[in-house]
Every structure is written in C-alpha cells, then in structure tokens.
From TrEMBL:
Localization annotation: Membrane
Gene Ontology MF term list: metal ion binding; oxidoreductase activity
Keyword Transmembrane helix tagged: yes
Bilayer topology: Multi-pass membrane protein
Source organism of this protein record: Duganella callida
UniProt-recorded name of the protein: Heme A synthase
Membrane-spanning residues: 28-45, 99-117, 129-150, 157-177, 197-218, 309-328, 334-352
Pfam families in UniProt: COX15-CtaA (PF02628)
Keywords: Cell membrane, Disulfide bond, Heme biosynthesis, Iron, Membrane, Metal-binding, Oxidoreductase, Transmembrane, Transmembrane helix
Main location: membrane
Domain of life: Bacteria
CC terms in the record's Gene Ontology section: membrane
Amino acid sequence: MAITALLIALLPASIVWTSSDANKYRKLVWVSVFLTFDLIVFGAFTRLTDSGLGCPDWPGCYGAANPFLAHEQIVAAESLMPTGPVTVFKAWIEMIHRYLAMTIGILIVAMMAQSWYQWIRTRRVEYAPWLPTFLFFFVCLQGAFGAWTVTLKLQPVIVTTHLLLGLGLLAILAWYGGRQNQLIAPVRSVVSASPPAMRNIRILALVSGLLLLVQLALGGWTSTNYATLACTDFPLCGGKLIPDMDFEHGFTLWRELGKTAAGHYLPFSALTAIHWTHRNVGLIVALAAGYTAWRAWDHQALHKTARNIVMTLCVQIATGIATIFLSFPLTIAVLHNAGAALLVLLLTVLNYKAKYQHDLAKKAASSASHPPASTVRH
C-alpha cells in the first residue's frame, strides 16, 4: 500500500518540480489543496455509490494491496450477494479513494519536512513549520476516522466526522495557501474601506463560515443516514410545511446505520427530521453567505471571491432541489457535494482576504494619523 501511494504521489510531485512557479513550496501547498478538493468529491462519489465497504477491511483489500490481488475473494463475495457492498467495481472505487488519501498524506509529510528544513536554514517566515506540523497530525486523525468508517461499518457519526475532517483539511490548506501567496507576493495597496468597514466584512465572513460548518454537518448526517429522499417535494415536505418528525431518534449520534440507539429500525419520521433540518438550515446559510458576498462585492480585493460565492450558492441551491425532484441522480448528488466543498474553499479564501485587508487598512490608518518624524514640519 505504501509503495503504491508513493508511486501515485510521484505524479503531483513531478507537477510541483517541473512547475514554472519560482517558489516550489507554494506550488506544493496549492497542489495539495487541489487534490484534497478532488478527494472530497471522490469521497462523495464513494459514499453515494455505496462503495464505502467495497473492501471490508483496512488499509488493504482482503489483506492485499490492491483489488487485483484480492480478485478471488471479491468475486466470491459478489457471487454471494450481487447487489451487496462488495463488488469488483465498488472495491476499485474504495481503493482509489484510499490511494488518493494516502497520496495527500505523503504530500503533507513532504510539506512538513521541507518547512522544517528551510526554517532551520533560513528562519524565513513563509517556512514557519508550525502549521504544516499541525496538518500532519490532522491528516493522521483523518486517516484514523477513515479506518473506523470501514471497521465500524459506516456508522453515521463516524462517516460524518470523517467528512467534516476532510473539509476542515481543505479549509486549513486553503488558508495556508493564501498566507503563502501574501508572504511571497504581498498586496501593496489598501482597498477603499475603513478598518471598521473591513472588520464588519470579516465578522460576516466568519459567521457565514460557522453557519456553513453546521450545514455541512447536517448535510453529512443526511447523506450518511440516507435521508436525501425523505422529502420528495419542495418547498413542502410530504405536502406539509412542518411534517411529522422524530428529532430524538433522528439526531441520536451514537447508533448503527439505519437503527435507533436501542437497535430498532429507524422510523421514517426520523429521516424526515434530518432532511427537513438540513433543508431549512441551508436557507439560512444561503442568506448569510449571500449577504456577506454582497457586502464584499464592491471591494476590489474581495470582489472576485464574492462573485464566485454567489455563483456557487446559486448552483448549490439548484443541485439540491434537482436532487429531490429527479430522485437522487448520482451526477447531480456528486455535484451538490462538490458545491459544498467549493463553498468551504471560497469562504476560507474570503475570510483570509478580509483579515489581510483589515490588517492593511489598520496599518494605513495608523500611518496617516502618525506620520514619520522626518515629514513633520517644525
């Protein structure tokens, strides 16, 4: 498994090495961001195709490094249950997901090693190793939840946490990438906004990010409990504005998939509660993120990110509604998950840019009120 992951990691490593970017370290960070986004989208595809147990052990597949070597066992399991969790197709999907995850882990190890090496040699601030080291331990935690996802047979709270950690990894890497950009090629002009105005945008961006985190948890909980089609109409749910719902069983965290904490089958009203909550919190997130983007729209340094947030919100709402009316088509469901990851990326970038511009605005205001002594006339 390790050799396979190392061979796969050679491809992104070669992209970094042959890049025209003068700073290979920054390129490594952004390649890791790109691959993490891909991993999240492919993880959604793995989950939505019911391939999470395509190889029912971990980290290999029936103890082998790849499905080729485990072909006999996979075929035997598929012949016993042709529509079950283990098939040749699902095994490959699951293992590709694991290979990609291990590749990102290798890139983060390389990032940490390079940061420590350069920091010891140069003490340059862009190579400060604290965040890359934190990323290493974070990705190890993510890997542990990936293992528990399999060994605990897709227990919803574990799968949802695994998803949230993946999105958290994407956010941290994006923040680090933004920091690398600004340290290497800093913006020298301040946007036309006072520190209080930029501070307000920064607060709005932070609140929008926190609301998005809640919505991501609800989205993961909806997906891992297979509650996507608990409501098959919109904007009503089962023909009602407020349908019959069982919040107690729906939001009991520690339980098996499809079961209550007592081991009984999960009632449909519990799935309805999960879906209905996700749908309505989504409306709150759309309003908050949309308002934040509107406030950031007129600022040159934030305009592009704000515009992309608005476009992504529109697509996200459309794919969410289409998933309901078209009875959960795989392509649209994957796009909906990709949209969620893109919102994480964009709101992280907006938060970083707002913080950076706020700091610049404060420095400019301080310089204006306290000019250098050499410029003061006596």
